Amino acid sequence: MFLQQLNPSLKALTIMVFIIFLATIFEPITPLLFLIWTVLITFLFGKVSWKKYLLYFSPFFIFALGMLWTSIAFADPPINPDEAINILSWSLPTENVLTALALALRVLNVAALSLLFVFTTNIVHFILSMMQQLKLPPRIAYAVLAGYRFLPMIRDELKIIHDAHLIRGVNQAKTPKEKMQNYKRYAIPLLASAIRKAERTAIAMESKGFTGDKNRSFYRQFTIGKLDFIFPLIMLIGFATAFFVSKQLGF
């Protein structure tokens, strides 16, 4: 799909720029329209499962509702009744309600932009692109990649240790305190395994001539072409349109 083919660094910079743009908006129409635009772009140009998307988006939605509720619930009573909005039995200042909506929608926009990046970007390609386009030091980049690779291995190692204890009748914990004791027993084997894997990785990298030098060649080359600038243009069109509509509506 189109979003998966873009340069990861340029895509990340574009998303960061629009998050900064949204931080300057204190009315609800622009972030609402831009949120709809971002979600549409994600599903139209990225191969994303809507079930998985909703699963990851739901915590941000709950957090945004909580922010909206607290901002409205603790709003000051209106001084001018003509500038108030009546919600059930509440009379709230119009400005406070609009600001609360803007803050909640800003959270949802940050979530939508972040999920667009996460679901359409390969983390390995992103790190390699940052080394080539953003001049990220290889020492930091490869350390991040190694940590990223180790996480699933540590999870599998934890399961192996847990099963080994279970077979030997050690893992019979029922209360939370006993479970905590079990995890303390897991810590030393996990640490020893992690140290061995880190040592093997360091030896392998050293044997292949890794010195951390920035002037190095790459098997996977990432460049920024004309196609990569279409995404910032599409997002800019969406943001500009949302801003124009908001302005025409008097916000």
Automatic annotation (TrEMBL):
Highest rank taxon of the organism: Bacteria
Segments crossing the lipid bilayer: 12-41, 53-74, 100-128, 224-245
Membrane topology of this protein: Multi-pass membrane protein
Keywords, sorted A to Z: Membrane, Transmembrane, Transmembrane helix
Keyword Membrane: yes
Main location: membrane
A GO term from the CC aspect: ATP-binding cassette (ABC) transporter complex
CDD domains hit by this protein: EcfT (cd16914)
InterPro entries recorded: ABC/ECF_trnsptr_transmembrane (IPR003339), Cobalt_transport_CbiQ (IPR052770)
Location of this chain's protein in the cell: Membrane
Name of protein: Energy-coupling factor transporter transmembrane protein EcfT
UniProt source species: Oceanobacillus piezotolerans
